Amino acid sequence: MIAPPGAGKGTQGAVLADYLGVPHIATGDLLRDHVARQTAIGRSVQQCLARGELVPDEIVLTMVRTALRDTGGGYVLDGVPRTMAQARTLYDAAVQTDATADVALHLQVGEAELVRRLRARAEEEGRLDDTEEVIRRRLALYDQVTHPILDWYDERGILVSVDADRPADAVSRHVITALEVVRQVIAGNPEAPRTAIDLTNLGKAFGA
Ligand code: AMP
User: Fold this and answer.
1) Band of the pLDDT at 205, cuts 50, 70, 90?
2) Which band of pLDDT confidence, cut at 50, 70 and 90, is reported for residue 7?
3) What is the spatial order of strands in the sheet that 104-108 belongs to?
4) Rounded to an integer, what is the distance from CA 168 to the centroid of its chain?
5) Measured between alpha carbons, how far is 144 from 52 in angstroms, rounded to an integer?
6) Is the CB of 129 within 6 Å of ligand 1?
7) Dist CA 55 CA 80 (whole Å)
8) Which atom of ligand 1 lies at the shortest distance from residue 78's CA?
9) What is the pLDDT of residues 55-84, one digit of tens each?
10) Fewer beta carbons below 10 Å: N end or C end of the chain?
């Protein structure tokens, strides 16, 4: 899943993992857990998290490799990759084990709505990185560093983009419908070239 902070990765990731019966691996959750337990990793990354900066690739990649090793095959990866280097390293590793991603799911939400959601979350959950300044920093990093990765998934034909600026259950329905289409395409001919699916204009086309 590739999406800006506040787009609903955590919510949709959990729904999807449950629906598909695979583990939900969320790097943000794993990192926050390290910080809470004050492990060596936790101590080394807590400043990054508090400031909304990206944690060094190597730390994230080691964590994700360990989490993936414990899965039986399928997975929902949430919050990673966030840099092109992470994307390429994970892809190279997945090629070795024949476990490359079937889908790169992009949740699209406009910036004003993202800021509104993150402010609301700040009041509800009190997350350290949901302050105004850190929110802006995280959104800027997403635009500059993470969003460009989408082009790579688009070229590979595995990108599925949905309009996530709507209630969570409506987003889940769109996501699951799109993934079921992909599942059938892959089942029909796993080696066939794929085409990206863009559902971000459904609202405009058909109304709410
Ligand atoms: P999230 O819960 O996905 O919003 O992530 C919270 C914070 O964890 C981010 O602002 C980063 O500081 C850090 N983080 C999570 N995933 C990554 C990643 N793949 N690469 C670098 N930093 C990450």
Assistant:
1) low
2) very high
3) 104-108, 159-163, 197-199
4) 15
5) 14
6) yes
7) 11
8) 3
9) 999 999 999 999 998 787 799 999 999 999
10) C
For ligand 1, is residue 130 a contact (CB within 6 Å)? no
CA distances from 151 to 2, 45, 159, 180, 199 (A): 12, 29, 9, 23, 16
Instruction: Decide: helix, strand or coil at residue 68.
Output: helix
Q: CA separation (Å) from 119 to 2, 136, 143?
A: 21, 11, 19
- Give the tens place of pLDDT for each residue, 93-119: 999 888 899 999 999 999 999 999 999
Kindly state the helix (H) or strand (E) to which residue 16 belongs, with its residue range: helix 9-20
Distance 79 CA to ligand 1 centre (A): 6
Angle made by CA atoms 192, 67, 135, in degrees to the nearest 5? 90
How many CB atoms within 10 Å of residue 52?
A: 21
